[in-house]
Design goal:
This protein is of the alpha+beta class. It contains 9 helices and 22 strands. Strand 16 and strand 17 form a beta hairpin. The longest helix has 22 residues.
């Protein structure tokens, strides 16, 4: 028994030393003790800790605002707030770190759920009005889905993955299938679209194909195990899995069943006359990004590292992710480190021993339909653009993105 125990201790000791060497750090016993002996919070804070709790004060992950794009309206509000993907683990985005898109000329609505109503009308046999409590009495589902803004596109000026890809997040959503409500209302023959409207100063509204709505859309009151937060649509938010974020209407109050696509405020800038561009909008294509190592992080030296990142697709589940260590010349399969749910972020990992030489690392996603995430060169060829450096991507941007690892271990935008 003693020999087995000593062997186990030796393994743990050697493993810890190896990890410390690869990371370029070897915390001393004093340093380790200093963390455990951090002074406790004053007892006066116990009431707040019991009521809701808080994260460790050692954790500094925060959202940041988009600074390069002005507000689209006269209110001059922050246009978008970016999720810190570089600090993410797993696939679920903490609600407080979920990206936020502009509220289109209004402050975050302060809605009393007891007074809020959802109306189903238009081309239906029985117009219905639901309170939030009535919706909570109906059969519900819980699903994991990502949201992504169409503005989530990397630029050479971006420094971090929070700036290049921070307008996507993934949560566990709970609510009533919209199909259940529409079946109760009785959709009439000839209906082909619905118009969903939210309660905002400039009304957030969108037109959606009836087939999509009847397939998988949700009227959600829950997000990550608690009520949807005000920034994300409290008390009701429409979730349209796989569609760009603007279709996922916040503060949902009305669903009108109609016989054609209706122009709404949200359609501005999201419709295209060119059918080739239109085909690349609305539904998010297969996409991925490496979150470690990523921009403004630094590898302390040659050695073993675990490359990790996120992959997703609006067409279904992620089937596989490939990694390139030479700027896209060759590709090697990565490992999926989380369940691959339909229209959800999927975590991938890749064992990598860095030799200390400069290189460009990339990830490439393939979804369950077999659609492969395109490189910028492939997109440029499709649009007959001679140089992909001059490429202005039309539609949603799901191009392969690379990080340049410099010889000193610093990580930089591969487009720069």
């Amino acid at each position: 028994m003693s020999s087995k125990l000593s062997g186990r201790r030796k393994f743990l000791r050697d493993s810890a030393a190896l990890v410390g060497l690869a990371a370029g750090v070897a915390p001393s016993a004093d340093a380790q003790m200093s963390h455990s002996e951090a002074p406790p919070k004053d007892s006066k804070d116990n009431k707040d800790l019991i009521a809701y709790g808080e994260r460790s004060h050692y954790v500094k992950s925060v959202r940041i605002p988009v600074t390069e794009r002005m507000s689209p309206d006269e209110f001059g509000m922050t246009f978008h707030v970016l999720s810190p993907l570089q600090d993410s683990v797993g696939i679920i985005t903490a609600t407080s770190l979920h990206y936020v898109a502009t509220h289109r000329g209004s402050y975050v609505p302060d809605i009393n759920p007891a007074e809020h109503r959802l109306m189903i009308h238009g081309m239906v046999d029985r117009p219905l009005v639901f309170t939030v409590d009535e919706l909570k009495r109906l059969p519900y589902v819980t699903r994991t889905h990502f949201l992504e803004c169409s503005g989530n596109r990397a630029k050479p000026t971006h420094k971090t993955v929070q700036q290049t890809h921070g307008m996507t997040s993934c949560c566990e959503w709970t609510g009533v299938p919209l199909s259940l409500l529409l079946k109760e209302a009785g959709v009439q023959s000839g209906a082909s679209f619905v118009v969903a409207e939210g309660d905002e100063t400039v009304k957030g509204a969108t037109s959606l194909p009836l087939a999509k709505v009847m397939d998988d859309c949700l009227v959600c009151y829950g997000q990550n195990g608690e009520p949807v937060r005000p920034q994300h649509g409290f008390p009701l938010r429409l979730i349209v899995p796989g569609y760009e974020g603007i279709h996922n209407v916040k503060y949902l109050r009305r669903i009108k069943v109609v016989d054609q696509h209706y122009m709404t405020y949200n359609d501005y800038g999201h419709l295209a006359a060119d059918s080739r561009v239109a085909a690349l909008t609305r539904q998010v294509g297969p996409k991925s990004v490496i979150t470690f190592p990523s921009g403004e992080q630094k590898l302390p030296g040659p050695g073993f590292y675990e490359i990790t990142g996120l992959a997703w697709s609006g067409s279904g589940a992620v089937r596989s992710v490939d990694l390139s260590l030479d700027g896209g010349q060759t590709w090697t399969p990565a490992e999926l480190r989380s369940p691959a749910y339909p229209m959800a972020h999927t975590r991938f990992g890749f064992h990598w021993t860095w030799d200390g030489k400069e290189c460009v690392i990339m990830s490439r996603c393939t979804d369950e339909l077999g659609t492969v995430q395109p490189t910028r060169a492939e997109i440029a060829k499709y649009w007959n653009v001679p140089n992909d450096k001059d490429l202005q991507i039309k539609g949603l941007d799901n191009s392969v993105f690379g990080w340049r690892v410099a010889g000193d271990g610093s990580i930089h935008n591969g487009l720069a």
